[in-house]
Amino acid sequence: MPDHTFQPGELSDLESWDFLRNQELGRLAFHLLGEVHIVPINYAVDDQRLLFRTAEGSKLLGVTMNDDVAFEVDEVVGEEATSVIVRGSAHVLEGSDAYVADTVRLRPWLEGAKFNVVAIDVTEITGRRAHLHRPWVGMQHVDG
């Protein structure tokens, strides 16, 4: 019996936020010295903003110099793909505000001290779900 729960097309804001809450890894796009950089980060959702931890370095410098960021999370399960993109402004949480990171599932995945907590205040969120057509899946590669 076919599964009729799949609904291709645009996700509502609520569906997009639910998707983000159920993921942990995405890509942050930020500006640094006239260039756009994209890096993978693990994150958590706190209400209607994203949080991540970072050490001193290019991400921290970039969001401090220019708070304009974008963030993307994708998932492919079988023949269904989901993608959510947010745009917003990033800022370092200072003092007691940074303790919010201890109340969500946000721990560094890689070794090293990541004491800086950054929040992305989301100004725009878009989500999309699609059924994939990949005829090459299952084709065998033949050397010769």
Automatic annotation (TrEMBL):
Q: Name one Pfam family in it.
A: Pyridox_ox_2
| Domain of life, per lineage | Bacteria
Give the InterPro entries listed for this entry: Pyridox_Oxase-rel, Split_barrel_FMN-bd
What is the protein name stated in its UniProt record?
A: Nitroimidazol reductase NimA-like FMN-containing flavoprotein (Pyridoxamine 5'-phosphate oxidase superfamily)
Classification lineage: Bacteria, Bacillati, Actinomycetota, Actinomycetes, Micrococcales
